[in-house]
Specification:
5-stranded mixed β-sheet; two-stranded antiparallel ribbon; binds zinc ion; globular; about 5% strand
Length: about 725
């Protein structure tokens, strides 16, 4: 069941960055907080925090507190569930559905702190604890979702749903609770449940093996170069890194390149030696496809087959039908329909890009036809000739502090909120800053935490998460505590933290997620903030990125950190133009992977497919050109065969459609039009998952999202 799984919204934006010199520490725990702590019992999870805004009292939490807190929290929820099933009264919405929703408060509080810290500030002890806690939580979650007596009560209430006079949010809660049980297998008989358990065990083994094989293949492949003249085109830093890689792999005095991104990407982009580019490229695209012990072809075909079998058992046509049922898309047909609309335009643009590159090859007297391993190399040549833009030109205009103020000012102009920094709240690390967020009329909204700098113990990437979600139920009016975690380089002795254009954009993006959590205004915790379907949740953040590129917004914050000069318009124009470059390729390779994912998971029988043929036929059916491979081919498509994205890789472009269409509303009505902003806040940011996502979108926009704004924003059409 969705509501019992606890994981941060991992927002997969890979950021490069490395630790530089020390930054000044910002705050210490307040003395008042420490006093409150001495009164509390030994385990701080067992009492109210007693801190301002009920901020978790990080200074009091020790690693030894987690396990007892988890055990007690699980026991508490077990008792709450037992009380529901033991209730002699007939099942009602209040004594069953709401009672389930209100259960597990302590578990929510312990899990929030624990899982935030295991991603933002972990260590070996926490990692070991996570391994201990994980089976406890999954057994606990199974105990609830497979509790036959509990499901009977839920089903009884559900059967009366049309006569209960429920609000929309209540109807949604009832439906989601019921469907959550059904999707966990509550309706199956014992022999079917046993079959599901066996299938799940097989799948878990195979998906792990898929990942292990891929890791082995990724680590083992290398191109070792002994002749320095073969390195032309590469920068000194890339060459130095290749020398270090060679040394580490036992080829001292030579240069080695691997299929890891930081190694292969600069090589394919800049290395002049075409034969070596081909060698490395084919090494990458043939991972786990070499007919050796690490081959994934049979494994993934088996995974697809078992998933189809499981879906059938659960009463669905295919695995994709099962997965998509509780997403915005609802059906595979709806996803195919969207992809069908975008695919021809993206492919046509990609063909133009290939043609441009072929002309360049011909003009240079190349006498060969562009191949997939030539794409990054010639695309870069064209990019450089057309846009002549360098990251070092833009970084001085995007100091972290002024960019953060730009984010706050943008939100203030849109939603009227104000921000006040506090330096007296307990935090889990000196890097963390805390901000109180207020309405224009001074009403307190919630706490916003930032944790910006890269450090050991923090996972890579950028994400938003909550320490407490907003909710207003069972006589508790909880204000949200939201965090943005990023991995930016620290300031140095001579420079503040300066961001690349993409990093600055990510700051806007993540604050879009933060607003989703902060401006949430709902009753039920399982529906508030970012509790929306996966193919919808990225959209409020994607919208937010758009403001950053507007000249009037840049004028508010993008000032040279030394001179205070606003970023020149000419530079902005170049950035904007370059951002649309090569989008035919980027969209096509992404969509080709999406189509592979959907084809594999739309199988309606358990027949084991021949992977090579299946993939070839799928891509031929869509007319993919040979100069482009899918972003992931089947044997190394970890997202779908070993991650959580099966039948879900389309989600990125799906929410991008909403993002582009929503921003078009602001472009039509005014960048800071109060009416549009109010409608966006009310229907999207405040509503969370309290109603059907498409209905909420229609209420905001007055119509369904269209794809034209997306095609325009990517430069695929004029
Ligand atoms: Zn995101």
């Amino acid at each position: 069941m969705k509501k019992f799984t606890l994981a941060p919204i991992a927002l997969a934006i890979a950021l490069s960055g490395c630790g530089a010199s020390k930054t000044e520490s910002t705050q210490q725990a307040a003395p008042a907080v420490e006093q409150a702590q001495t009164i509390a019992t030994a385990n701080p999870f067992f009492a109210k925090w007693g801190t301002p805004h009920e901020m978790p009292n990080f200074s009091a939490i020790k690693n030894e507190h987690y396990l007892p807190a988890f055990s007690a929290a699980i026991k508490e929820q077990q008792q709450e569930i037992s009380a529901i099933t033991a209730n002699k009264e007939a099942p009602t919405f209040a004594n069953t559905i709401e009672a389930i929703e209100f259960s597990g408060n302590l578990l929510d509080s312990v899990s929030s702190v624990f899982y935030n810290l295991t991603s933002a500030e972990t260590n070996d002890d926490l990692k070991a604890l996570a391994k201990e806690v994980s089976p406890l939580l999954s057994a606990h979650s199974d105990d609830i979702s497979l509790n036959g007596d509990l499901f009977k009560r839920v089903a009884t209430v559900h059967a009366q749903k049309d006569n209960l006079k429920l609000t929309i949010a209540q109807q949604k809660l009832l439906e989601d609770t019921y469907v959550g049980f059904v999707r966990s297998g509550a309706k199956l008989d014992e022999s079917q449940k046993e079959k599901i358990r066996v299938l799940n065990a097989q799948l878990s083994k195979l998906t792990l093996q898929f990942g292990d094989n891929l890791l082995s293949e990724t680590n083992s492949f290398e191109v070792v170069i002994a002749d320095k003249s073969k390195l032309t085109g590469l920068s000194q830093s890339v060459i130095a890194a290749a020398a270090a890689t060679a040394k580490a792999r036992g080829h001292e005095g030579k240069w080695a390149f691997t299929t890891q991104r930081p190694s292969i990407t600069p090589f394919l982009t800049y290395a002049d030696d075409r034969q070596l580019r081909k060698e490395l490229y084919l090494g990458y695209t043939n991972r786990a496809n070499n007919n050796n012990e690490f081959d994934n072809k049979e494994i993934l075909a088996k995974i697809a087959s078992l998933r189809a079998t499981r879906a059938k058992l659960m009463g669905y046509k295919s695995h994709a039908h099962f997965v998509l049922e509780d997403r915005v898309a609802k059906t595979p047909a709806a996803v195919y329909e969207l992809l069908n609309k975008i695919w021809p335009t993206a492919l046509a643009k990609a063909k133009v890009e290939v043609n441009d590159m072929q002309k360049l090859v011909d003009a240079e007297g190349g006498k060969f036809k562009i191949k997939a391993w030539d794409y990054p190399y010639y695309a870069e040549k064209i990019r450089k000739a057309r846009y002549d833009i360098d990251e070092e030109q833009t970084r001085p205009y995007f100091a972290l502090e002024s960019t953060l103020q730009g984010v706050f000012k943008t939100a203030q102009k849109l939603y009227g909120i104000t921000v006040k920094e506090r330096t007296d709240l307990p935090t889990y690390h000196d890097d963390v800053r805390t901000f109180e967020i207020y309405e224009a009329d001074g009403t307190y909204i919630g706490l916003f935490l930032t944790d910006h700098y890269v450090r050991a113990g923090k996972s890579g990437g950028a994400w938003m998460n909550s320490y407490r979600k907003q909710y207003n139920m069972n006589e508790v009016d909880a204000t949200p505590i939201i965090v943005n975690v990023l991995n930016y380089p620290r300031p140095t002795a001579t420079e503040p933290a300066l961001l690349t254009f993409d990093q600055a954009s990510t700051l806007f993006h993540e604050f879009g997620h933060a607003l989703h959590g902060l401006l949430s205004d709902g009753k039920y915790r399982s529906q508030t903030g970012t509790a929306t379907p996966r193919d919808f949740v990225e959209f409020p953040s994607q919208v937010m990125e758009n403001w950053m590129l507007q000249p009037e917004v840049l004028a508010m914050f993008a000032k040279h950190y030394k001179t205070g000069e606003v970023i020149p318009q000419e530079l902005v124009n170049k950035i904007q133009a370059a951002s649309q470059f090569n989008q035919g390729f980027a969209t096509t390779e992404y969509m080709a992977a999406t189509l592979l994912d959907l084809n594999w998971h739309s199988l309606e029988d358990d027949k084991i497919r021949d992977t090579a043929n299946f993939e070839k036929e799928a891509l031929e059916q869509w007319g993919l050109i040979e100069e482009i491979d899918p972003r992931y081919r089947s044997t190394y498509f970890k997202h779908i065969f070993s991650g959580g994205y099966s039948a879900g890789y389309y989600s990125y472009i799906w929410s991008d459609v909403f993002g582009a269409d929503a921003f078009a509303a602001f472009q039509e009505n005014g960048l800071f039009d109060p009416k549009t902003a109010k409608a966006f806040r009310k229907n999207i940011l405040s509503s969370g998952g309290s109603d059907d996502a498409l209905t909420l979108y229609r209420q905001f926009r007055g119509k369904d999202a269209e794809i034209t704004p997306l095609l325009k924003s990517r430069g695929l059409i004029d």
